[in-house]
Design goal:
single chain; 0% strand; mainly alpha; 110 residues
Length: 110
């Protein structure tokens, strides 16, 4: 039974590797997709900032303001994550994509 599971896993892994090699990772980082990603990130950051500004006045008005404070912290955290994603998206990953293609070709030749 264990051997069948291992064979099935190996077959699934081979299928995944083939699919992965068909999709060129550098396509994900074309200038068009980077611009689209930047636009989405900017819109999400604007959304976070709007919510932070809307929640701040409630800190003084609401008696139990811990929930409000938690939501503000969550929006700040999301905004920081978006900053990191934007920095990662702006990196030139063409060298990485070339390395992936080379290692993928070596895997297929085995």
């Amino acid at each position: 039974m264990g051997k069948k599971k291992e064979e099935k896993f190996a077959a699934e892994q081979d299928e995944f590797d083939e699919i992965e090699m068909e999709n060129d990772p550098s396509d994900l980082f074309s200038p068009d997709s980077q611009e689209e990603l930047s636009a989405v990130i900017a819109a999400l950051q604007h959304f976070c900032n709007d919510n932070i500004l809307a929640l701040k006045p409630l800190l003084d008005e609401v008696e139990d303001n811990e929930a409000v404070r938690d939501r503000i912290i969550n929006f700040i955290t999301i905004s920081q994550i978006l900053d990191s994603v934007e920095k990662l998206a702006s990196l030139d990953l063409s060298e990485f994509a070339a390395m992936r293609k080379k290692t993928g070709k070596k895997k297929k030749s085995k």
